[in-house]
């Protein structure tokens, strides 16, 4: 496979800003940078919707639901998702019910995802954050399978806020083996270098969630493995 260029990588990036202290000015700057870098979308908290600065650009808008714990009622996630669609979200990144995963309550895992899918039907894109670093391989596989049964479009590694860590090549590869090419795979959480981004793509990631996007893309262009500094969100 030909090594992706920086432009190729940018085209699959959700340029992300989910810090709780984020301001409207920060979001406007995020949009401007996304347009300059050529990223696929921005990913922001639902309180920042609608993103009026996006008008006149080709950048799409993603938002997060049940974030970051996933430990809220399915009805609340569904209501949050429905409002996000009304507010202009093109894509929904929802957090799975991790407690249900740990209890192997796959009916609840699936119904939780399905509630959001029904509240945000196609063409809205639904990504399911499984928090892969907190799961066993079996739990990763079963979470991906539940996501597919419930109608998700993507499975996603991480919120970037869990103490267990973020994306790994192993998790991305396992997720891709489980659901690709039927579903996309998004690698997010701790992808801070150009080399790491390329490793995730090689493992099967079809979307990347990045907060230090410019530095990662610069690393892809230069072949640098220097880590992006300064983002306390872990995203």
UniProtKB/TrEMBL annotation:
Name this polypeptide is given: Deoxyribose-phosphate aldolase
Substrates-to-products reaction catalysed: 2-deoxy-D-ribose 5-phosphate = D-glyceraldehyde 3-phosphate + acetaldehyde
Family affiliation: Belongs to the DeoC/FbaB aldolase family. DeoC type 1 subfamily.
NCBIfam families: deoC
Enzyme class (EC, first level): lyase
Main location: cytoplasm
CDD domains noted in UniProt: DeoC
EC annotation from Swiss-Prot or TrEMBL: 4.1.2.4
Pfam families: DeoC
Cell location: Cytoplasm
